[in-house]
Amino acid sequence: MNDNTPRSKKRDADERSPPEGQNIQKKVKEDIDLQSNMAASESEIDISDAPSWFKAAFQYQNKQMENFKEEIKTSIKFATESATMALSKTEEIEKKMKSLELQNQQMRHQMGILEGKHRLVLDKLSKLETHSRKNNLILEGIPEVENETSEKSEELVKDVFKNTLHVNDDMDLAAVHRYGPESEDRPRPIVVSFQYPRDRRSIWKKRTNLKGSNYVLQESVSKDVAEARKVLFPIVKHARTLDAYKNNTYIRMDKLVCNGEEYGVDELDQLPQELHPEKIFTKTKSGVLAFYGKGTALSNFKSCSFECKGIKFNCIEQCYCYNKALSAGKNQLAQRVLLCEHPSEMKRITNDIRGLNIQQWQKQATPILLEALQKKFMSSQKLYKTLMDTGELTLVESNPHDKYWGAGTHMNDDDLYTNPTAKGKNVMGQLLMRVRSDLRRNPPT
């Protein structure tokens, strides 16, 4: 087909061309036919006048050549059949791979839909749970009495109502009981269920009378709402120090309301710059950036999505606690961690694992956390930018309760900024700086 052939005809010719396997078979057949013709022409040589010894030698060579040609034909035929079969299998494998890839995409799409539905169901359950507790309040700080009964708990609660909140009405309480695991450090909180909503409202309005006492009064809400409020409370507290926001920033259920706009925990980066979580959960001074709390992207509690060794995690803490349980041989506990929604719950159930060698685990945890942190900060441009924006600042996890992973002191401690490792090793801060350095040299594409 010459170059002047119209493109449409070229395309038609290409579309009519046989598959690659058929081309191979045709080429091999042509080669075999050519060799046969050459052999035929060679066999027509006239040797009638040659000596008898030459004729014998020539016939012997001819026979050997014929045998050799037959072997070549057989080999070519075998090779052709093998190549055709291999090509057919390759095409079959490619079809299966494409089919599997399509199925994988469909499954991922379905998983996304199911995850969305799961989240909606959890949100509805959380709202229903919170609604069911609408007549409850939680009172903290009342010392426990040995072998305390619910009747005794009710007596202690009413004493606080009368003598600290200055409520003289004898209210009808539907139920009063302590909840949570016993602790030597502090008494368990008491759940107070009111018979009448008006009594609950009356007590709640007088909660400011508890200032300066050892008592704390809280609303009884679901775990999801409680976890969200842990992040939102510090922001509201900071907003109350600013004239522009102190009268129009508050919490409604699990949302922060600011200037009439609602913000969920995952939407806090959209807040005005003065209330941005990175300003509230971090503090920079003397070349040191201290961070602590779920509100900052540097925290292990910060919600994110990444995979390590084929397992999907929703935060660094989940990856840490999962591998911690595996290190102690607690496979069922590790699976429980994967089912947890909240980092605080993951930490609680793996806080004290029997049979765990702490020193050995800390050594094992370092490479695990390094990989997980890299995956985390490569999982989104927003998280990557937050880490890169720290520049060359010394990163310090100002966890006052942890002297190994954290600095063992609060970010408001001035000594932290002159000697970050005076009270703790700050291993987490060091790991973050290593990841920052690695990602700066090899940024995600």
Molecular structure report:
With 445 residues, the protein is of the alpha+beta class. It is 52% helix and 11% strand. The protein is built from 13 helices and 12 strands. It has helices at residues 7-16, 20-43, 52-132, 150-163, 197-205, 223-239, 277-280, 316-327, 331-339, 343-349, 358-378, 381-388, 427-441; strands at residues 136-140, 173-178, 190-194, 216-219, 249-252, 255-258, 261-263, 282-285, 288-291, 306-308, 311-313, 394-397. A hairpin with a 2-residue loop joins strand 8 and strand 9. The longest helix has 81 residues, at 52-132. The radius of gyration is 38 Å and the shape is elongated.
User: What is the SS-derived class?
Assistant: alpha+beta
| Count of β-strands | 12
Radius of gyration, in angstroms, nearest whole number: 38 Å
- Helical content class: 40-55%
Query: Unreliable segments (pLDDT under 50, ≥5 consecutive)?
Result: 7-17, 39-43
List the strand order in the largest sheet. 2-3-1-4
Largest sheet: 4 strands, antiparallel
Average the pLDDT over all residues and give the rounded result: 86
Q: Topology as H/E string?
A: HHHEHEEHEHEEEHEEEEHHHHHEH
What is the distance, rounded to the nearest whole angstrom, between the alpha carbons of the first and last residues?
45 Å
Strand proportion: 5-15%
Number of helices: 13
Q: Which of globular, elongated, flat, extended, rod-shaped describes the shape?
A: elongated
